[in-house]
Structure formats: structure tokens, C-alpha cells
């Protein structure tokens, strides 16, 4: 009979990106879309962004992360991943909530691209005016 491990789930969002995150007790391994963060994100700053929830809650190396990200770009996906990891950590240990809340890791960043307006080239940029 297979041993069942407890997994904690969290969904993170940022811009148009969505991250589905599963945490389980483990050695701190991180897998994003079946790749390591270095292979997937190619930027140390984004890798550091993902690790923030673990470092502030002093849980580095206690959980293994398996995540699936979709939509948006790599920066948005990294932000969504941080949000999802934070939500999954709370599911695992509710006492971490005040720390993560104070640093803003649980707040969904509401900034998204402004939609294009009628009679304009983009959201705010008008068409070029020519006097002659």
C-alpha cells in the first residue's frame, strides 16, 4: 500500500498569470512546469522572489513545491507563484498568516493592463495629429 503524504494547495495570481501550487513535506525541492526554477525563469531575481515566502517564515527546506503556471509572462508567473506558495503555506500552518500578511504576500496585486479605448491608438495614446 502506498504511503499518502499531505499536500497543501494554493492558487496565486498576478497580471494574467495563474500559478497552481502544491506543497508537501520534503527537502525544499522546487519544480515549476516540470523544470527547475533556474531552467524555467532564467533570472536570479525571479528565483529569489519565489523563495521569499519561505525565507520570511523560516521554513526553507521544510516543504517541496510542485507548481504549474500558465498565462502571462515569466515575471507575472513568478509573482503568481510567490502568491500561491504564500497561500499554500497558510493552509499548512495558519500561524504564519500574520507574517505573510504584514509583508503583503497574501494580497493579490490588482495592477493589470489598461484596455484600449475607442478613437485611440492604445489605452491613452492618441493618433498622431498632423496640421498639414
Q: Count of DSSP E strands? A: 4
Instruction: Please describe the biggest sheet, giving its number of strands, its sense, and whether it closes into a barrel.
Output: 4 strands, mixed
The name of the CATH architecture is 2-Layer Sandwich
State the CATH topology. Answer: Ribosomal Protein S5, domain 2
What top-tier CATH class fits best? Answer: Alpha Beta
Features of the shown structure:
Ribosomal Protein S5, domain 2, elongated, 132 residues, alpha+beta
Task: Explain how this protein is built.
The protein has four helices and four strands; from the N terminus they run βββααβαα. It has 132 residues and is an alpha+beta fold. The protein has one domain: Ribosomal Protein S5, domain 2 (2-Layer Sandwich). Strands 1-2-4-3 form a four-stranded mixed β-sheet.
Overview in brief:
With 132 residues, the chain is an alpha+beta fold.
Task: Tell me the layout of helices and strands.
Elements: E1 7-14, E2 17-25, E3 30-32, H1 37-41, H2 44-57, E4 63-70, H3 74-92, H4 97-102
Parallel strand pairs: 3-4
Antiparallel strand pairs: 1-2, 2-4
Helix pairs in contact: 2-3
